[in-house]
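Table S2 (continued). Query chain:
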Amino acid sequence: MPEGADWTGVYYSELYGYLHLVQDGTAIEGKWIRPHKDRWGELHGSVTGDLIKFNWTEHVVGAIGPNSKKEGRGYLKYKRPPGENVDDALAGEIGQNKDEVGEPWEAVKQRNVMPDLASIGGTGSSDIGGGDWDSENQESGTPEPPTEPSEPAAEPPSL
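Corresponding output:
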């Protein structure tokens, strides 16, 4: 690893969006959300210096059934370009099923951004625009009293 480098952070890729990574010893976990917010994923793996190897799962928001998720393996390598005041990055690949290679993944580490794994993923009904009836996420103000239904419109003449 480059001097002072740390895997924990948030990385941005045009294809995969924001990847949040948290390292705990040699274990690492992460979550990402695609830029169009139509898919989100999670990874779990191990760290060996500037290399992580992991298993991943990506979920399609609002989908159910066999096409609602993909999974596989992958690797990422930590990089620091030469020069002063440069942004660290990662580069690697993810493969489908048991493959560890396939699609390239390159991302730039965001400065002064802390990862928040809980902000991404399967949080329940709020994923598809619903609300949690028992949460603090409720409308403010005083509820209006119910109104009486209006008289039904006259039925059209029969032909």
